[in-house]
Design a protein that fits this description.
This protein has nine helices and 13 strands. By secondary structure, it is α/β, with parallel strands linked by helices. The chain has two domains: about 80 residues, Ribosomal protein S10 (Alpha-Beta Plaits); about 190 residues, Rossmann fold (3-Layer(aba) Sandwich), CATH 3.40.50.170. The strands form three sheets. It has a seven-stranded mixed β-sheet with strand order 7-6-5-8-9-10-11. Strands 2-3-1-4 form a four-stranded antiparallel β-sheet, covered by helices on one side. It has a two-stranded antiparallel sheet with strand order 12-13. Helix 1 packs antiparallel against helix 3 and helix 8 crosses helix 9. The longest helix is centred in the last third of the chain and has 24 residues. The chain is globular.
Length: about 280
């Protein structure tokens, strides 16, 4: 469908905000010929419009929306559903999340435009370049800050909107997290903080864990502690060996990351304080 998504956050009470959103609906639907096809409302809201001025003249529609949003003191964004998010993927040596993202992108499941893949290793070059995507290796072994600043220059040059950390095993500096606040998506296993460091699946096996999983979240200055977008879990059976836990964990990581990216690029996520509010489909 040819939709336009609108997300808004207010500074008023929920009652006042609900009334203001109703005003947006009446104004835009009645006077601009737009069909409201989705309305997900809490203290923040996500509206989806189809047809009318939202599609025929996006600039005029944006101006009309701005007039109403200004009255309710709202912070808001608007994005056509058909516009792919310019995306960069960062990866190290494990390729399972990267390969899954490339497949979902190629099949049209993810509305992203992959402008490039960046890595601190050569391991994933082949699977990236066979998809016709640019692959660049950056050296993080010496001056990490300089390497991240070189990366930032490339991201700016490519006009990147969304950064996906697909098992990128480098700590992203605070200044880069702030530069792309709410637009850097990370994935990690769910053993944190219980099993920090190397060989978490072996140590989880030795402790006899019953559930494993993965967490997709926004990257912030606090390592692996940003607002959670999506999580996935799998049950561990008594006959599972450490390699089975690794296999199940990779499946969880692929699913959680793919869903988290899709929710993000479809405008289904609003960061509210330390939480990510997700309007699931």
């Amino acid at each position: 469908m040819n939709l336009c998504f609108v997300c808004a956050t207010n500074r008023f009470s929920k009652t006042i905000f609900s009334a203001a959103v109703s005003q947006i609906q009446r104004s835009l639907v009645a006077f601009h010929g737009c069909l409201l096809v989705a309305n997900l409302l809490i203290e923040d809201t996500r509206l989806a419009f189809e047809g009318g001025l939202a599609i025929s003249d996006a600039l005029e529609f944006r101006n009309a929306l701005g007039e109403v949003a200004c009255k309710m003191n709202a912070e808001w964004t608007m994005r056509p559903a058909t516009l792919p998010a310019r995306t960069a993927i960062l990866v190290s040596q494990q390729d399972h999340c990267l390969a899954d993202l490339l497949w979902r992108w190629r099949s049209g499941e993810l509305n992203i435009s992959i402008a490039g893949v960046f890595s601190n290793h050569e391991a994933c070059r082949e699977i990236v370049e066979r998809e016709g995507v640019s692959f660049e290796k950056l050296d993080f072994s010496t001056d990490k800050d300089a390497s991240f600043r070189a990366l930032k220059m490339r991201l700016v040059a490519l006009d990147i909107e969304t950064i996906i950390l697909a098992r990128f095993m480098q700590i992203v500096p605070d200044w880069l997290c702030q530069s792309y606040a709410g637009n850097i998506i990370n994935i990690h296993h769910s053993f944190l903080p219980a099993f920090i460091g190397a060989n978490p699946y072996r140590r989880a096996f030795e402790r006899g864990v019953k559930l494993i999983g993965a967490t997709c979240h926004y990257a912030t200055k606090d390592l692996d502690a940003g607002p959670i977008i999506e999580q996935e879990v799998a049950r561990v059976e008594h006959y599972h060996e450490p390699d089975d836990l690794i296999r199940l964990g990779r499946d969880c990581e692929r699913l959680a990351l793919a869903r988290g990216v899709r929710f993000h690029v479809e405008g289904r996520v609003l960061v509210h304080g330390g939480r990510a509010i997700v309007f699931r489909d």
